[in-house]
Every structure is written in structure tokens, then in C-alpha cells.
Amino acid sequence: MRLAALTLAALLSAATAPAINVVLDYTYDSGSFFSTGTANGQKARATVKAAADYFSSILDDSFARVQKPNDYVSTAPNSPNAISTWNWSIEFENPSTGGTVLIDNPVIPADEYRIYVGARNLPTSTLGFGGPGGGSRRSSISYYFPSQLAEIEAITEDFFAAVDRRGEPVGEFGRWGGSLTFDTVGTTWNYDHTVAPTSGQNDLLSVALHEIGHTLGFGASAEFQGLGVGNFFTGLEATAANGGSNPGITVDKGHWTNGTISTVFGGSASQEAAMDPSITTGTRKLWTALDAAALADIGWDVVTPGLLGDYNSDNLVNAADYTIWRDSLGTGNVIGTYAEWRDNYGASAPASSLAVPEPGSLVLLLLAGSGWRRRC
């Protein structure tokens, strides 16, 4: 698949009709971090939703619906029915407990990418982790007449392709979704995506973008790992976005090399890549051209959002966005540019609407770190 127009838009704007709908599911959230009864809980939900909406706005794939097919019944005179059946299940880590969740025969609508979200106490210096979920599919085939076999095989092929790859071509990433969790103990959060973090705060928006990136397969899929050769990532789009050189990756092939620099996706501001393994406390990291290129390399159709200068994800370029840009000056992590904000002042965009696993796999990435540069 292709990566389109890497240099044309700013982060956190919304497309009018996203092809992929990143849906957040709080079914397994059992703590207070995302409680709708608290101000911080409401802000936390809004911030993670802003990150999910961002990915909905730049992912232009069309994913197949995943649903258990109806049983196929074959009959013959004076004989019992022969029944072919198909089943599937998803498996992921409970984001609030760390236990394993297994769900049999869920229905995943077309173009939906479902992420189960929660929070709990994570290891020291770990701000969050996430990854694509796993699952399995199976069939039991029984029929009387050879003429029925072709129909049964077609059902099986379509179902397995939807489960394994969401109908995408072989070799391209396609899953039902995944899970992500955030730390609840020992982390001072900036819960509010509409304002920049202050000194001593860890930015929830930055961590959400990073961890959702992992759920989409960055560093946590066979497609990504297969492009890692030694200490480098060999994807063509990422190489082009990195000035023609293969970008460096960590030993586990899960992140860019720490300190990797790119530009904000759709903008011109230089920034440390969102998908390197750490973030400096008190700063915000947006999605970069290099991060977007890696998603294209593993099979996503990536397009650019369309509202320059909207730095707080409210679909309007106004004074609030200027404040975020101004407050980021001198932090070493400047968000956007004054010219970009000035030239697009008053612009607006409509909000976007919200609405597969390898057999037997469960991929959840835990990231550790230390010191004042917190890992995420």
C-alpha cells in the first residue's frame, strides 16, 4: 500500500469520512483513571479519543467485517444432516488487570479497529503499553456431495482472510484490534490534550499516540519485524522519509532508535519521533512523517489530515492553538510553527465520527525506562 502526501497537514485534525474507525472500548476498565464521574477521568477519555480520532483521520484502508458464518447444512435422502461450522475468537490482555481475556465469536464491523482501554499500576518508569490482539479461527467441514465443496471452501477462504488480515492482501497488516493501558501509580499526568504539559507532567496525548501506534502494528507485528534487518528498518516509505537512509531501530525491533528526529506529520517542525522509546517529562510529542511512513510500510494506506495549525484537536485554528505553540517554545519540543498557525487562523473542519489476528498470537508490548526521560 501507499503513503500519500506526507508533508501536507498538521496533527490532530479530523477527516470527514475516515475509512478506518478506531473505536475505544472501556468494557474492561475497572479503575478510576477513566471514570466519567471525575474531571480528570473525563479529560483522560477525551484525550485518548483525540488520539484515536487522529488515526481514524489518516488511515484510509477498507477492512472486512469479521463474523462467524452461518452453518452450512448438507442433506441426503434418508441420512442425517451434515453440518459445516466456522468459529473464531479474540484474545488480549485485560488492560486493568493484566489477565487474559478470551471472547468467542465477536462481531467486528467493517472498517472498525477495536481497542480495549484501561489503566493500572505499571512497572517503574512505564507510562503505558499496547499492541495488537491475537486470536484463532477454526472450521469443521462435513458434506455429502462434491458439488457443495466449492461453496464451502469459498466460505472458509473468505472467513479466514477476514479473521487473519481483515481482507487485506497477504503480507499487509490487518487485525481486529488490540488493547492498551496507562499507568495509575507514580505518574503525574497531563490529562488534557487541549493544553501543553507543564514541567513535571507526563503528557497523556503523547503516550496515547505512541501506544495506539503499537496496536496498529508498529514494532508489534510480523509485518514490522520482518522489515527489521540488524539495527535498521528497511521499509521503503520510512527510508524515503528519513532522507534516503534506513532509520535505526532498537535491538528488539520495537521502536526507532532513541532520539530519532523527524518532522511533525504534515508540518515542518523538527521533532523527536513519536515511536522512539522515550519521552521527556514536561513535553509533548506529535505523530511524525517517519512514524506515518512506517505504518505505510507494514500495509496501512496512510493519508494526511487536512487542518494545519490545529494543535489542540478541536477542529478550529484559534488563539488556543497559538497558546500551545507559544508554551512549547524553549521546551526542546516545539509544536508546529507560528507561520503555520497564522496562515490558517480561523480555519475549521468537521469532527470525524466514530463508530486480524495471526492464529494463536497475542502481542502486547511492555516498554520500560528510567530517569527523567520517561518511557512510554
Automatic annotation (TrEMBL):
InterPro entries for the chain: Ice-binding_C, MetalloPept_cat_dom_sf
GO molecular function: metallopeptidase activity
UniProt-recorded name of the protein: Peptidase M10 metallopeptidase domain-containing protein
Protein keywords: Signal
Native organism: Botrimarina colliarenosi
SUPFAM superfamilies recorded: Metalloproteases ('zincins'), catalytic domain
Residues of the signal peptide: 1-19
